[in-house]
Each structure stands twice: as C-alpha cells, then as structure tokens.
Specification:
The complex is a heterodimer of chains A (223) and B (107).
Chain A (H helix, E strand, L loop, with lengths): L2 E7 L3 H13 L5 E6 L5 H4 L4 E5 L5 H14 L4 E6 L9 H9 L5 E5 L10 H18 L11 E4 H6 L9 H11 L4 E5 L6 H5 L5 H16 L2
Parallel strand pairs in A: 1-2, 1-4, 2-3, 5-7
Antiparallel strand pairs in A: 4-6, 5-6
Chain B lengths: L1 H22 L5 H19 L2 H10 L4 H43 L1
Helix pairs in contact in B: 1-2, 3-4
The chains are: A alpha/beta (223), B mainly alpha (107).
Amino acid sequence: MKTMIIIAAYNEEKAIGDVLKDLRDHDYKDVVVVDDGSSDNTAEAAKEAHVVRHAINRGQGAALRTGLQYALDHGADIIVTFDADGQHQAKDLPKLVDPIKEGKVKAVLGSRFIGGLTKMPWKRKLLLKGSIIVQYLFYGIKLTDAHSGLRALHKDAASKIDIRSDGMAHSHEFAEQIHKHKITFKEAPIDVRYTEYTMSKGHGSFSQAFKVLFAMLKDKFVK
Amino acid sequence: MIIQILAIVFALFAISRTYLRLREGKLKVSQFVFWVVLWLGVVVLAFIPQTASYVSVYLGISRPIDAVIYGSIVLLFYLIFRLYVMLSDIEKTITQLVTDLALRKKK
C-alpha cells in the first residue's frame, strides 16, 4: 500500500527541512509539499519532496485540498496530512497508518488529548476543549480533539471528503464529512511539540478561533 | 424645493449610469429594473412625501421618516448580503483556479 504524506506549507523555509528529514529518517519517501504561495524559499527548502506550488496564498484548507487531489492522482492508497512547522512527529505515524493498512478503519485522526503524550499551554487547551463542544453542536460528531492537523485517510475516504473552506476550518470539515459519509474512523494518541516557533505562527489564538467559527457559520448558512 | 431637485438630479444620474452598464452587458435586465424602480421610488418620495405616511400607517410605524429609514436599512443589508455571497463565489473560483494551475504545472 502506497502511503503519501501531504504537507501544506506557507512560509516555512526554516522548519520544513527538519520535518522532511524526520519523515525520511522514518522511511516515509512519498512526501508532497504544497507550497501555498510562500514569499520565502519554502519550495527550495522542500525540494527533496514533490513540491506543488500555489501561485498565490489561498490558506491551509485550500493547500490540503490540492495535496489530497495530487495524492489521489498519483495512486496513493493512504494519505496522511502533516504540519509543516515541526509540531508533528514521524514516529507517531504508524499509529495512524497501521489501522488503515489492516483494514480496520478508513480514517484515523490524531488526538492530543488521549494517551497523555502532549503537553500544551492552558490557553490552547481551553480553546480546543471549546471547539470540541462547538463541533459536536454543529455536526453531531464527538471527538477528543477537534483541531488536530495530523490524520490519515484511506483513498476511499479521501475521495469522498471535499474541503470547501480555504482557511483553518478544515479540521471541522474533515470531522463533518467523516460523519456525513459514515466513514469508519478512530482516534490515535499523538505527541505534539509546542515550541516557540510553532506558537509564533499564531495557530490556536483567540482571533483565529473566531475566524474558524465564522467560517463554520458561513458554511452552514450560506451555500 | 431644493431636496426635490437634488433627488431628481441624483436619481437621473444613477439611472443613466445603470443604463450604461446594461448596454455594456454588465447588468441583467432584472437588475436594471430593480435599480430603476429603486431610484424612481426615491423621486416619488421626494415629490410626494405623503407616500411615506401611507406606508408607515400601513406598517404600523408612527413616524413616516422611521419607515423610510427602516426600509433603507433592510435594503442595505440585503445588498451587502448579495455582495458577500458574490465575493464568496469569487474566492472559491480563485482557489479552484490556483489548485488546477498548481496540479497542471506539476504534471
């Protein structure tokens, strides 16, 4: 089974090299970096992987959609989405990929709240717990982690999932569509590293949370 | 008197602009009609302010000017909403183009 890792990267020239090295060290060779219109040298820093370039920045959701399409077009059986900033670790991947390989489920979502592997700042914890509730209210799906960017999908699942919003609401969309298409899934514990670098990217800030909430409302009410 | 003149001048100006856009094919006939009716409404209001009282009495709003303002706000909201939907569609199209271009270049 061909496993492909897709990474959406926007201005990650500093981090992407280490991320690719980590994946290479763990023997993941099919890696696609979607350079989402970076203004730095992300594409150059990622050249050991397949690089797909967005001409202009369209957001992480859009980059992931491009990556999924690329992987499906290139015969991937299992597709993993992985963050570009170094917070995810290749050592966690077997926990996500193996259940799909063994045919147990069609999707595995990484969770920072099971297994107690991840230590995170309390503010982020609060936001994430809040978004789990919002996700449940919106889509009726109960996860332990609503916003993990680390997930693995069987190609059957990936071809059903259509990410509509360009920005950061994609985690919710994955959850929503897994629920909608009745895709079998499980959650797996992952170890996410928060460093000054990953925190500086502003993911998980309150303003971002409101943007995501707004995108969800928009998607719900404006077709 | 001045308000009537201003209203009619501005309405005529706006209608002429709308007509030009229709001729260029940038507006649909239905959209053109919408704007013309809207501006004619403004002219009618300026010349026969009592129309506002009929409407306000009918709607149960005590002051005619309030009826006019409520109506304008509703209309503005509707127009903004339309703009918003249109913008969303454009964003979606741009993203689709960027995705297609990126994948095509790679092949």
